From TrEMBL:
Reactions the enzyme catalyzes: beta-D-fructose 1,6-bisphosphate = D-glyceraldehyde 3-phosphate + dihydroxyacetone phosphate
GO CC aspect terms: cytosol
Family: Belongs to the class II fructose-bisphosphate aldolase family.
Top-level enzyme category: lyase
Pathway listed: Carbohydrate degradation; glycolysis; D-glyceraldehyde 3-phosphate and glycerone phosphate from D-glucose: step 4/4
An annotated GO BP: gluconeogenesis
Sorted UniProt keywords: Glycolysis, Lyase, Metal-binding, Zinc
SUPFAM superfamilies on file: Aldolase
Swiss-Prot/TrEMBL cofactor(s): Zn(2+)
Cofactor: binding comment: Binds 2 Zn(2+) ions per subunit. One is catalytic and the other provides a structural contribution.
Protein name per the record: Fructose-bisphosphate aldolase
Enzyme nomenclature, EC number: 4.1.2.13
Length: 358
């Protein structure tokens, strides 16, 4: 039995998202969530998932969404981020089934000041629901982790009550991911905030579970966005086991892993940290920085290797009148970036045990 016996190929919504994460948690694997910013990077991720026979999460950040629509657009009211997220969702929906893999279509961190972006996506979900009886996206993340805990949870409850009837999954963050995320610089936050306490996780569970079981928690265990010199980050994925135990005890001793947990800042993590996290019920691990770099590597190497064919439209080492069109066509050099990005996505899948799962 595999994932396709449980959920269909293409973009998943509603209980299918939970069925996928449930299957992953039970079978001790997790699904990488890769940030995409263009149809090219989205296709590279889908291609990798297809080749390795794995379900996948594609996510757009607020900045990535704006890029998807075009950096030339004004974004003072989040209008480009809203348009770009919708454009990304329609692109991914259009091609996902052709790749034959189940896809979770997700939006990444949304801090308080970015809520107009969230509101715009949710309006698009509601409109799509009217026509198709399912939301446009599979899932959205709210990240009010910088705000007081009560306000964070209250805001999640408010939005989740609107999301759940549409069949939308909610990912929320409690405890702070260090490093940088769009418009939010967490490089100097208090160290304790980087490690969420089990009581806080249970409080979130208590608030959200009565609304719907379709939610996950990004509890901080020292996570940091970006890649830094070794030793800068002290990940403690074993803390996630304490969250599961605490909530399990409060629920009367079962199930042993009641929580769907999310691992932010996957780039640069060791194989051991990743497998410990997965054993403790992480079902989704976000990877951005490493796949950004991987996309560059193919393009960088192409340009360095073909430099003498790229300096003018006509004329290269083979002759002063030789045309260079086939060397500077973006379908050639962007494709090399897609290949190296896809290879890094496959590595993330392997690290998470997400191979041959269909
Ligand atoms: O958590 C992430 C996106 O939300 C990705 O983090 P990295 O860029 O460190 O992989
Ligand atoms: O939040 C972390 C992700 O890496 C998104 O990054 P971004 O906001 O620069 O697109
Ligand atoms: Zn955050
Ligand atoms: Zn993150």
């Amino acid at each position: 039995m595999g994932v396709l016996d449980i959920v269909p190929a293409g973009v998943l919504t509603g209980d299918n998202v939970r069925k996928l994460f449930d299957y992953a948690r039970k079978n001790k694997f997790a699904i990488p969530a890769i940030n995409v910013t263009s149809s090219s990077s989205a296709n590279a991720v889908l291609e990798a998932a297809r080749d390795i026979k794995a379900p996948i999460v594609l996510q757009v950040s607020q900045g990535g969404s704006a890029f998807f629509a075009g950096k030339g657009l004004a974004n003072d009211k989040q209008q480009a981020s809203i348009t770009g997220a919708i454009a990304a969702a329609h692109h991914i929906r259009t091609v996902a089934e052709s790749y034959g893999v189940p896809v979770v279509l997700h939006s990444d961190h949304c801090a308080k000041k970015l809520l107009p972006w969230f509101d715009g996506m949710l309006a698009a979900d509601e409109e799509y629901f009217k026509a198709h009886q399912e939301p446009l996206f599979s899932s959205h993340m709210l990240d009010l982790s910088e705000d007081p805990k009560a306000e964070n949870i209250e805001t999640c409850v408010k939005y989740f009550k609107r999301m759940a009837p549409l069949g939308l999954w909610l990912e929320m963050e409690i405890g702070i991911t260090g490093g940088e995320e769009d418009g939010v610089d967490n490089t100097g936050v208090d160290n304790a905030a980087l490690y969420t306490q089990p009581e806080d996780v249970y409080e979130v569970y208590q608030a959200l579970n009565p609304i719907s079981p379709n939610f996950s928690i990004a509890a901080a265990f020292g996570n940091v966005h970006g890649v830094y010199k070794p030793g800068n980050v002290k990940l403690q994925p074993e803390l996630l086991g304490r969250h599961q135990e605490y909530t399990c005890d409060k629920l009367g001793g079962s199930p042993a892993q009641p929580l769907y947990l999310v691992f932010h800042g996957g780039s640069g993590s060791t194989k051991e940290e990743i497998s410990t996290a997965v054993n403790h019920g992480v079902v989704k691990m976000n990877v951005d920085t490493d796949t950004q770099f991987a996309y560059l590597v193919g393009i960088r190497d192409y340009v360095l290797k073909k430099k003498d064919y790229l300096m003018s439209q006509v004329g290269n080492p083979e002759g002063a009148d030789k045309p260079n069109k086939k060397f500077y066509d973006p379908r050639v050099w962007v494709r090399d970036g897609e290949k190296t990005m896809a290879a890094r996505v496959k590595e993330a899948c392997k690290d998470l045990g997400n191979v041959d799962r269909l």
